Fold these 2 entries.
Entry 1:
Amino acid sequence: MFEGRWRTTGSALLRVITVWAASTLTMLLLAAVLPDFHLQSDDGDSLTRTALTAAWGAGAFGLLSALVWPVLVRALLLVPALVLGLLVFFLNGSLLLIALRLIPDGRGAADPRTAVVVAAVMSAVASATSTALAVGDDNAYRRRLSRLADRRRRRSGEDGRHGGPPGTVFLQLDGVGHQVLLDAVADGVVPHIAGWLGESPEGAPPARPATHRLTPWHTDWSSQTGASQLGILHGSNHDVPAFRWYEKDTGRIMVSNRPASAAELQRRAIERTGDGGLLTLDGASRGNLFSGGADQLALVLSIAARRGRANRSRAGYFAYFSDPANAVRTVVSFAADVGREIGQSTRARLRGDRPRVGRGGLYPFIRAFATVVERDVVVTAVIGDMLAGRTAVYADLVAYDEVAHHSGPHSRDAFQVLARLDRSVGLIAKAAEHAPRPYRIVLLSDHGQSPGETFEAAYGLTLRDLVRAGCGLPVPRRVRRTKSGAEARDAARHAVLGALHRPDPEGAGEEEPARGSDPVVLASGNLALISFPDVPERMSREQIDRRHPALLRTLANHPGIGFLLVRSEEHGSVVLGPDGAEVPVAALTDDGPLAAMGPGAAEAVRRTDGFPHVADIMVNSMYEPATGRVHAFEEQIGSHGGLGGEQSRPFLLSPLTLSAPLPDGGRLTGAEQVHEVLRRWLREVNGPQVPLGAAGTGRTESTETWAGLPEVGPEVPVPAPGAGSHTRSTVARTAEDEPGPA
């Protein structure tokens, strides 16, 4: 026993000395090459004295990094992530300047700008050395993991017996469609995932037998993260008609990835289901729009609007950035990805790639945050959850979705990001081997993406321009010169004159705008919603025709639009298509105006038609089955949000040790049904879920158990986890703030 302890102590001491030596050598080298960094007195010192000075400086810097850095990061948790990233170098350089002042006889000195460079290099070298030593010593790594798990169990009051049921990790690869995953596996882009499927790249040794099954599923009409993840985590995405929509009863625009909107949507889902969510039993929610009822939160949007101690989501930054080497590495990678995006967009512009959207402004920084910062923080948090032995973890990796919006879902740029996500999946799987309990890892996506030129690029005007022209409202001169704009204005003019029973006078000027407020036009990928805010109820087709006689006909017959959904006083809600096609929603089938949209489209439209906040006019773009193209109503060449193509067909990749998603082999349709599948899997591996306070953890039932319950709207009673959940009879059928869908 004592021999083992001495061996452990000796090994730890050796690692400290090795890292210290590497840092000392790095400091000596930097002092030799950087003119504003000195480790000698003005009269010069011997090599031995200079080396001792470097050792003093390296030791002081390492000690300050270990003791002071975590305190600094915790103090800056309320600072936005991008600002924190920029402060990393300044703070690290400041620590180095303090360390140099601690050197005896004042032999250390550096220009502040040089100190930033020296500190960054030294942190990176120390991290690389420490990591290399840990990799070479599996026993040390296991002991570290064991200490982390023991520390967590002591804090929570658990007895540490983890031998029984495995935990479950749900990793959401945001925006990765079923077909994209198949293509990536076939092309050798995702070797870790391919190994789970028993696939190996061409020319490689045969893979091991498959450990996972791949199942496609179909989204609701609203094929975007807000609707899908709300349904998956909270069991209901009722009344989420799109990514953004206008609510007449409150006069506000809901946007799924705004904190206040996400909090309200989560509150409504909990109120509707009477259940806190998928993760209420010892769960963790990482990088998601919604909490899922988890107690452990990091980068969760629905609680991001909170202030003070109630917002624990930012604590995920502390877990990662408390290590200065992590901070430096991530900031360097962030800068590299900004440069990568600028280079890729420049090459695409020089090649004349089509379709193409603008990728300048802040976009390179937004992309780098998604592909580097968010990924690093979330992956580290998930690994920490597994080492702590948590029961259920759900994490969203958004990198692919962000890049595919601007580069295309099948582009080389997007597949490079997907390859890096595959390495993250492999890292999480490797870490699971050292966790105190076994883990089942489930991969899934919330939607896919469909490629295609934007509506504006194809026709020279936005949908908002077309709607205004069809209403006879003023539009910019450039819109009047387009074919679509001219036709819409002519149709509106003739419709108004016909209604007034008078001829079109020669040289007539502009028609007076129609009475009533301007329409609100909101885009959600290739789905758009048109609302007339001055009418408190959902407008009918007849009301719209009386006010704007040419509008519905103009939209339905436009080549860039597939179909419309409106309410009719005579026939109930109807779907309108080109050439006068009109089908009552009650009689709607997957042919006629919806023939190109694929199976399940009619039921998806019918379900959305019953939402309280469905728009006056729901507009779905055209879809071309031969090419898979759609037209996004916003600046995206890879889009999702409506019906048509790969956007509606995400995937579910589950271990064979879990039951099949649908034992009868039927269609898995809608996010709510996916929620039921995931909940069943948690029951299979963990047994019935019980209130946390009854599990002997020393915790009592209260609203604090439901850490994700938003502090907005009326107070909602929350039952115990698993008790009385899902009392509704509706089963899933099927359906991002700016700049676009999440």
Entry 2:
Amino acid sequence: MRFEVWAPGATRMTLHCGDVTHALTRDPRRPGWWTGEAEAEDGTRYGFAVDDGPVLPDPRSRRQPQGPDGPSAVVDHGRYAWQADWSGRGLPGAVLYELHMGTYTREGTLDAAAERLDHLAELGVTHVELMPLCPFPGRHGWGYEGVAPWAVHEPYGGPEALKRFVDRAHTLGLGVVLDVVHNHLGPSGNHLPAFGPYFTTTHHTPWGAAVNLDAPGSDEVRAYLIGSALSWLRDYRLDGLRLDAVHALHDTRAVHFLEELSSAVDALAVELGRPLFLIAESDLNDPRLITPRAEHGLGVHAQWDDDFHHALHTTLTGESRGYYEDFAGAPLAALAKTLTGGFFHDGTYSAFRGRSHGRPLDRTRVSAHRLLGYAQTHDQVGNRARGDRLSASLSPGLLACAATLVLTSPFTPMLFMGEEWAAGTPWQFFTDHTDPGLADAVRRGRRREFAAQGWAAEEVPDPQDPATRERSCLDWSEPERAPHARVLAWYRELIALRRAHPDLSDPDLEDVKVTYDEHARWLAFRRGDVRIAVNLAKEPTRIPLGIDHARVLAAWEPVPPPDASGALTVPGESCVVLTQV
């Protein structure tokens, strides 16, 4: 088997394969690369030593059986016999479901999660979006401190388990999206700096050194990250990737890393003959991110829309601290603006940032399916002091209203696991750092962060306490009992409506018409022949729809038809979906 590694500063490289050591030679065609051959097969352990230093895992390791600090293992992707005949499932018309592997089930494994995929198929979602799966020290964590971006975390089951999960999902008609982190690596178990200039001090991120995308040596670093992305899509048959915090990808080159990545993914889609897509997390509100490359954009296929979330969250809860302050003055107006324009901050002043922010979307050119809309995500739940979901403070009626606004919006909807049944379990920030100093620093940093918001230290869960992760696991007995069963039925009904009525999946922002009353706390909007009315007040209210002949498609509480004036009386904390007849 041929082994290769990029180590441009090395004077000597050795391969330690099994019990045999081999001297590698420079590749005369590729500067900085070292190559050699050794007897190996699937499962063979190996590593590299730079200038007679310690044996380190392969930067492109496909498997780390003993964790990030142990030897790498050879993976023969051709050994797996795929069962599903899968032609792919693209993003237009999709409904996504964000899932954390370590808490979706109490077992916290890919195989255990695969046994629960029937629930998602029955719910009606189209894609499962997995939070990061790359190896990190310890067993449990969110996954954003992974250090081996070509491998699968061994406690989750490793590479074969991910293939079994994808195969099962595809058999059920579900696409699979993976969250990948290109902007940083975790602080523990990261051995890349020993091999080459993977990081740069030219830029900085909130998580440490920035990945080298534009300094000397960045050609190979970019190729390393793109190769990892393509490997997930090709070797594991994934349908898309979610790109974490792309605003932290610092790149001053003329061809941005994201443009290069989107071009490579589009080329792979042609090669494989099935749709592939990229979804970015970005707080820049810059339409160029999701504008096609042919129109001088970066060509990313979609992005999370936090403005929609913030407007919706503020409308539902009345919260006004932090970034919610920009939306709290007139939350229904903010919500109406995002429903029709995508972004709330489109060049407007942001008090939270102390400056103007964003740029308008061209509604005639940008399809709304390129924006993901959601009421909850791992960030918006887990980054709260106690990891409390909306279900901890809102009535079932208001939760139904939130679901209605997400699932009838013009955006690509995304749900966070357990949301569909108003899960009573929190989802908290948890870690399992094996370095005692790092563990203590994370614990103290978390408490210091929330102390500034008035939280006492003992009120903030200890991330290192195993009980914090245990509390965050879904309780699969809940969907069968009240009030969870009713909320679940409502989600299923809304998703079925979205699939059955083309107007609800029409991504034309110009066709969305919204009316609202800030004081009375109601909002109504039109999607073609479909009308959606939401009453967030406790008391019934009359909402002028302007139509007197309509058929109710779904209602949280029973509602009479519109009266002769075209007004609809909606019960308190309730919602209704109608179609014009």
